[in-house]
Design goal:
This protein has a single domain, classed as AhpD-like (Up-down Bundle), CATH 1.20.1290. By secondary structure, it is mostly helical. The chain is 65% helix and 0% strand. The chain has eight helices and no strands. It is globular. It comes from Kribbella italica. InterPro entries: AhpD-like, AhpD_core, CMD-like. This is AhpD family alkylhydroperoxidase. One of its GO terms (molecular function) is peroxiredoxin activity.
């Protein structure tokens, strides 16, 4: 399978894509654990059917020290005992922020993340969820295939 279009071969789309990858690098400076960031990006990518990003975030999560068991259970996190209350709150926010219905994110979900995260971490969560959804949509539209991603490639694309 090949992508139907390479965003990096057009001047405007290449600039946008590089800036998205560059913005993603800011998350590394936050206090939100890298492994949690990758789990959340993986979950949004699963929901959006973005094969490229599922591949990327599974590999990046593994490199960040995430266990295979937890990665295998991300799609069914509600029934899994391996996630903390804070992680569950962040996963709920990720799902509601990805599926945005008419009411957006519920007050219950918002209250859940407020209990577990600082204002800076909460701001990071909101931006992370918005950015992964944008990246998912770009990759799904052009049918970017999965399987060839190697750890660190995204960081290299930001340059």
């Amino acid at each position: 399978m090949e992508a139907r279009f390479n965003l990096f071969e057009t001047p405007t789309a290449a600039k946008v894509a590089k800036r998205l990858y560059s913005v993603a690098g800011i998350f590394a400076q936050s206090t939100l654990p890298k492994a949690l960031q990758e789990i959340l990006e993986l979950r949004a990518s699963q929901l959006n059917g973005c094969a490229f990003c599922v591949d990327m975030h599974t590999k990046e999560a593994t490199a960040a020290g995430e266990s295979q068991q937890r990665l295998h259970l991300v799609a069914v996190w509600r029934e899994a005992i391996v996630f903390t209350d804070a992680e569950r709150a962040a996963l709920a926010l990720t799902e509601e922020g990805t599926r945005l219905g008419p009411e957006g994110v519920s007050d219950e979900t918002w209250a859940g993340v407020r209990k577990h995260f600082t204002d800076d971490e909460l701001g990071t969560l909101v931006c992370l969820i918005a950015l992964i959804n944008a990246a998912n949509r770009m990759n799904v539209i052009v049918r970017n295939p999965a399987g060839a991603y190697e750890v660190g490639m995204a960081a290299a694309l930001a340059n």
